[in-house]
Write a structure and sequence with these properties.
- The structure is a single chain.
- The chain is mainly β and about 200 residues long.
- The chain has one domain: Immunoglobulin-like (Sandwich), CATH 2.60.40.
- It contains 1 helix and 10 strands.
- The strands form 2 sheets. Strands 3, 4, 5, 7, 8, 9 and 10 form a 7-stranded mixed beta sheet that branches. Strands 1-2-6 form a 3-stranded antiparallel beta sheet, with no helix packed on it.
- It is globular.
- About 30% of the residues are buried.
């Protein structure tokens, strides 16, 4: 069958566009967060008094439908898709991580250079391979300035126990902390590990 050179060029161009669309749909280099269905994370703190920068803020988290495991550990086969750890950031997930942990009770050190004013600690669930997910929670804090005993300016951090939770939504799973694996906290301290699901 004989076709015109114009028609051959059109088909070649359409084929290149089609291949580009297929390859482009499989690679999204701009949005590298994933969604774990029904994953939830909640955070609370029992700090009611102000703390100084470089001091620690204790955080307790509960999780549902994810499996907490230390980054250096190997997840069991049945939890390959929902295994991961928590990464804590100051203000937003684009700032340097303050803490990486698989613990449900841990302390976060407020950086000494934190400017006065409202801030938040963002606790985001990352997959075991380090890929961030859409599941996160924020704990509001306020860094305030006061006059110290020596007449200098001291920066004081107070914590608001109100939190904002984001994630994939939904409900279900077991009680948080049930049947979980103990994990390590890098750096810092922590308590018993555990997950729900």
């Amino acid at each position: 069958m004989k076709t015109s050179p114009w028609l051959d060029g059109l088909f070649r161009y359409a084929g290149i566009l089609g291949l580009s669309a297929v390859l482009g749909a499989g690679c999204n280099i701009h949005d590298n967060t994933i969604n774990i269905p029904n994953a939830q994370i909640n955070a609370t703190t029992d700090v009611s008094a102000d703390v100084m920068p470089a001091a620690t803020v204790p955080i307790a988290v509960t999780v549902q439908n994810v499996y907490l495991i230390a980054p250096e550990a190997t997840p069991p086969p049945e939890h390959e898709k929902d295994a991961g750890h928590i990464v804590v950031y100051l203000d937003d997930v684009d700032s340097p991580a303050l803490l990486t942990t698989a613990m449900t009770n841990f302390s976060v050190t407020i950086p000494a250079e934190t400017k006065p004013g409202p801030h938040k600690l963002v606790c985001q669930f990352h997959k075991h391979d380090g890929t961030p997910t859409t599941t996160k929670v924020e704990v509001a804090i306020n860094v305030a300035v006061s006059v110290g005993a020596d007449g200098g300016v001291d920066v004081i951090t107070s914590v608001d126990a109100n939190v904002t939770t984001t994630g994939s939504g939904g409900s279900g799973g077991g009680p948080a902390g049930a049947a979980g694996a103990a994990g390590a906290t890098v750096p810092g301290t922590g308590g018993a590990g555990g997950t729900g699901g």
